[in-house]
Amino acid sequence: MPLQKTKKTKDGFGPDLFEQIFESMGLMIAYMNRDFDFIRVNRAYAIYGGKDVDFFPGKNHFQLYPSAENKEIFNRVVATGHPFHIYEKPFDFAQRSERKTAYWDWVLKPVKEPDGFVSGLVLILADATERRHTRRALSATEKSRRKAMSESEAARRQIDRLASVIDQAAEGIAVVKKTGAIDYVNAAFEKLSGYHRTEIIGQNLRLLDYDPDAPDSSEARWDRVRSGETWSGRLMRRRKTGETYEADVTITPVWDEEHAKDIREFAIVERDVTHEVALEKKLRRAQRLEALGNLAGGIAHDLNNILMPITINTELVIDALEDGDPNRSLLQKALIAARRGRELIKQVVTFNRVADEERSPMHLRPVIHEALDLVDASLPSNIRFTRRIEVFHDVVEANPAQIHQILLNLCSNAVIAMRERGGVLEVALEDLELPQASAKRFPGLRGTNHLRLTVRDTGSGIDERIIDKIFDPFFSTRIGGGGTGMGLAVVHGVVSSHGGAVDVRSAVDKGTEFQVYLPLSNRVPRAPAQTEDLLPAGCERILVVDDDDTITQSVRSTLQPLGYDVVIAASGTQALDILCDGKGSFDLIFTDQMMPGLTGTALADELATMQETIPIIICTGNLASLDGEITSEPGIREVMLKPLTAKELAQAVRKVLNDVSIERKGDTCHG
Description:
Layout: H1 15-24, E1 28-33, E2 38-41, H2 43-49, H3 61-64, H4 68-80, E3 84-91, E4 102-112, E5 118-127, H5 129-137, H6 142-167, E6 172-177, E7 182-185, H7 187-193, H8 197-200, H9 219-226, E8 231-238, E9 244-255, E10 263-272, H10 274-320, H11 327-350, E11 360-363, H12 364-378, E12 383-390, E13 395-398, H13 400-418, E14 423-433, H14 436-439, E15 449-457, H15 487-497, E16 501-507, E17 511-519, E18 541-545, H16 549-559, E19 565-569, H17 572-580, E20 588-592, H18 600-609, E21 616-620, E22 636-641, H19 646-664
Parallel strand pairs: 12-14, 18-19, 18-20, 20-21, 21-22
Antiparallel strand pairs: 1-2, 1-5, 3-4, 4-5, 6-7, 6-10, 8-9, 9-10, 11-13, 14-15, 15-17, 16-17
C-alpha cells in the first residue's frame, strides 16, 4: 500500500511529508493493519530482518516473530487506542537460535480513523542492545556521561532533521495551543498568511478568519476539535494585506503521549485553493449556460417556424396593396413587430454560442468607431466619454452586427450604472499576446494573439455575491426591473462562439471593467458586396420541403411570382418519393432540417447515395440541431436560420443557382 494514498496522520502531516520521513528515518518502522499483517516497512526495518522491503507486505508479524507477551501488548493498543512505548525491552528470536537476546526501544502507536476506530498500528524500533551492554560494562564514569551526551546529540539532530522537512513542506502547517495561540508556523504558512512568524506566533488563530462571526465558523468548529475530532473543511482566510483567499483546512488534535486522554495542542494544515475554486465556478457557469442554451434552442426553433410565414406573407400583402391603401401602415406595424420578435429570438439563441450570422475576415477598428459614435451621441451630459484605439493588426473573423451587439450592450450597462452620479466611460482596443499563465484562465480561448476590447466605467459596480450570475440569461441587476436579463448573456454567447473570452472585474461603488478577448485572423477581408433592391427572379424548378404547411405555402407565394416552378413536399420521405418517381428534374431543393422521419441532412445523404447532384439549401429554426461544418456535406450549398424575409429567401435561392450554373458552365434563365 503506497503511503501517498494513506490518510493524513493524526499529527497533521500530509502524505508527501510522511513519505519522506518514513523512508529517510534511520529508525526501523513497520506499518500493519489491526490484524498485525504487514502493510509496509521501511528500508531500515527490512535490512535488519535480512529481507527485501517487498518480502513483508501481507505477512503476519507474529508468524515471523512469535511472542505471546508482545501480542498481548499489540491487542491492548488496538482495544484501547492508547499508544505504548518501552525502553530496552528484551526479545529472543525463536526461529534464529544463533541470535542472542536483543534489546529494543520501541513505540507502538494506533492509526485512528476520524471516528476513533483503530484501523492499524505503527511500530517504531531502535536497537538498544549495544547501548545496554555498554552502559552495563561502563561504570558511572566520564565515559558513561559522554555516551549519554552523544546519544542526546544524535536525538537532537534527528529532531532537527524532522523539523527541517516540516518547515519545507508545500502545505501551510501551524501548531496551535489549547488557548488558540499560535505556537509554530512553517515557511509555507508564512507565505499563505502574509505574516512573518515573529508577527504571528503568540497571536490567536482567529486573526486569519475572514468572518469570525459567521455561524459554525469559529467556536462551533473548535468545540468539535476540543472534543477530540479532526475537522476538515474549506474556510475563507484574510492575509495580512487584507486580501482574502479560500483554503482547505484540516485541524487535528495532538494527544499527550504520557497522558493519552489529554490534548496537548492542535496541528493545522492549510492549502490555498482559490484558483481551483475559481475554475469550478467557471465550469458550473458554463454548464448552466449550456443547459439553458439547449432549452432556448428548442423554443427558438418553434418560434421561428411561426414567425417565418407571418413575415413572408405580410411582406407579400404589403407589396400587393396600393401606396395609399390604409391597410399598408397597419401591416407594416405588424411586420415591424414580427421583425422585433425575430431579433429577440436571435438574442436568445446567440448566447448559446450559436453562429447564426455569417462571419468573415473584417477590420475591427471601423466597426468599433461606428458603434462608439452611436454611443457618444446618446450619452447624458453627466458622463464623460473617452476612447483609446491602439492596434496595428485588427482583422478578426466576425460579423459586424454581432460586434455592434457586444459593444452596445456593454456600454448601455455602463451608462445605466452611472446615470445617477455620472462618471467616466472608457472604451479601449489593443492587440496583445496573452502569456500562457493568463490564457489558462480562459479554457475556450483560441489562438495566442488577440485583440482586447475593454469597457470600463466608474459607476455603482457589482456585488461580489452575484458577479458569477451576471452572464446567466434572464438574470438582471437592475433594481425594480427594466431589464430583460439577456444583454450580458448575449455578449457571453457571441464572444464564446468567436473563440474568445470575457472577463469582468468590479467592486461596489468603484466601477466595473469588462475585457473581451477576440482571436486575431491572418485572412484578408473581402470587399463589401453590392446589394440590390429588386428581388432576383428565375425560371428554374425548385422542390420545397417542410412539414409546416404555412411555411411551404409562404415560400411558394414568394418564389412563384419571381418565375420559379415550385413543387411542395410535406416531409423528407415524400420529397424522396417525388425524386425517385422521376416526376421531372429539379434545379434546387429548399428543405427544412427538423422534420419527422427524415431530416434535411438525412435527405441530402439519401440523394448522395442515389448519386443525385441537386443543390440543397437547408433552413432551420435552431442551428444547434446541425453538427459541425454542415456545408461540407454532399449537395448542401447554404444553411439559413428561420425566420427568413422574402428578400433573404429570393437572394439565397438565386445565389446558389448562379453558383451552380457557373460551376457547370451552363446558361441561366433568370430575368
